[in-house]
Amino acid sequence: MDGPPPMLTPEQVWHRVMNLPKVIEDGVLRLDGHGQQHNWTKRSIFWDLPYWKDNLLRHNLDVMHIEKNFFDNIFNTVMNVPNKTKDNEKARKDLALYCRRKDLELKPQNNGKMLKPKANYILTVEQAKLVYQWIKELRMPDGYSSNLARCVDVEKRKMIGMKSHDCHVFMECLLPIAFSSLPVHVLNPLIEVSNFFKDLCSTTLREDDLSKMEKNIPIILCKLERIFPPGFFDSMEHLPIHLAYEAKLGGPVQYRWMYPFERNEMEVESQGCSYMLSVFNQPSRHSEKELTHWLTDAELNSVHVHVLINCIEVKPYLDSFLQSQQISESNASTRIHAEFPTWFKNQVNSEPLSVRNQHLRDLSYGPLTCVKEWHTFFVNGYKFHTHAWSEGKKTINCGVYVKGLIEGGEDDFYGVIKHMYELEYNTSTYPKKVVVFYCDWFDPSSRGTRIDPKYNIVDIKMDRRYQLFDPFIIAHNVRQVYYVPYPATRRDKRGWCVAIKTKPRGRIESNDIEHDVPYQVDEMLHANEVIEVEGITGLQDLEADLEEVNELINEENDLAENNEDNEFDDDFEDEFEDYISE
């Protein structure tokens, strides 16, 4: 078996093209071996630039368009979209010529028509309708994506007007959920493609993981070639081979892709004080009508302890308390809630008075019982709503996530916001305020939260709750998530949702949502050393009936499709002519 073509250095490419005529010169020299050993017929004018032969990254492939076209082919084929699927009758005819897939070949009948077996990488009509209905009912945070419900026609079973960014979000976040009812040998390669683009589009890249991705993507594409027909693969399905290598040379894609990313940044002015505790007066902004709430004794004690243990300046006191009281790890939480507030207040009041000590004393007395309440808050670049305020709206902004201390997410907490409070402390100086969210937490145990160790998909059982009374979280310590239920095709996942994390929209507290900022995750997943290759016993869906097709009509459709393909190929050839010539 032949290996991949060698990676040529710029100097090697220059020696191969230096004697070719320029693109602006008449006549095309056809060299020996053309079409077999090389494809060069002319030399790009870029080679006239003195630095071009030393340029490592001479062509920057646009991730946005590659990802969109890859997604279109996957979605249209799996959903069997008429006139757009790559698994049409023409593709099935190719199987007899290029593949060994007797079970999927068209079967001629005596009446001149042909029967088309259903492949198991295609959803049934009923399954496709359920997926379209699932998309129709999806709710995501403001600014995360456009309203996908407007793009869905459930009855006609098609998507209309999806933008490039909609495809970007669907490919990286929703595709593994939407197609989770597919067989494992089909689903796993699709998830791997989804994770490949998600990692590639991360704001921070790791060189060692990019090297693994560069080795993995050919295997992933080969796994897809074992499943989908040859007609599925055009130039866009092969270009991902080069993307990880280009990322190592050119850096993160947000500096190279075609999504508009310019935005105005605003700096939050500080209040000008010389010293301030870390928990006080952090930048945030409320919105809409202000309400008043009186904390119960249980709420007051819980929120007071939570603020104390999350204040950086209080941590030395907490460590001293645990050591002096010889408290074991097993009952630390109970002892802290019961004894630490009083111990801390006595400790700071016994120390000499200073500016820092005065702030700690104010903190030790706890917040006022009467707090302000809102249903909308802007913090950390996120827009948050309470769960009640999100009801009946097209978007949802009440999901929260708190990262734990253990890598892998085993002690992460997921929940929804029930209330938003602004605590205020008695003080003789400037106002001291802390914004906290009162949350309804989901069960963090394995009965309520499951994490796929291979693909890092987090499933949440929506009817299971955290039993202990610890509802508060400082607003600046949370990130935003939204919960996506599985389509009705997955009956075994009924009641479970996938938690999907969102990216902050910048550090601006504004009512205006920036729709032109593309979705990205902050960190890459750790790429697998070896991609597992699943066994395939067959590609035909034996439970489905064979579809009767008319060969004459198909030939007319093939001609129309060929004309469309030729138009696209001409445009594509103009765009990538220099890239292909090298």
Can you lay out the helices and strands and say which pair or pack?
Blueprint: H1 10-17, H2 63-78, H3 89-98, E1 107-108, E2 114-116, H4 125-136, E3 152-153, E4 158-159, H5 164-178, H6 184-200, H7 207-225, H8 235-238, H9 240-250, E5 285-287, E6 291-294, H10 297-309, H11 315-324, H12 332-349, H13 355-364, E7 370-374, E8 376-379, E9 382-385, H14 387-390, E10 399-402, E11 413-425, E12 432-441, E13 449-451, E14 458-461, E15 472-474, E16 479-485, E17 496-501, E18 547-549, H15 551-575, H16 577-581
Antiparallel strand pairs: 1-2, 2-18, 3-4, 5-8, 6-7, 7-11, 8-9, 10-11, 10-16, 11-12, 12-15, 13-14, 14-17, 16-17
Structure, described:
The chain contains 16 helices and 18 strands. It is α+β, with helices and mostly antiparallel strands and 582 residues long. It folds into 2 domains: 63-260 and 550-581, no CATH class; 285-501, no CATH class. The strands form 4 sheets. Strands 6, 7, 10, 11, 12, 13, 14, 15, 16 and 17 form a 10-stranded antiparallel sheet that branches. Helix 2 crosses helix 5 (164-178). The longest helix has 25 residues, at 551-575. The radius of gyration is 29 Å and the shape is globular.
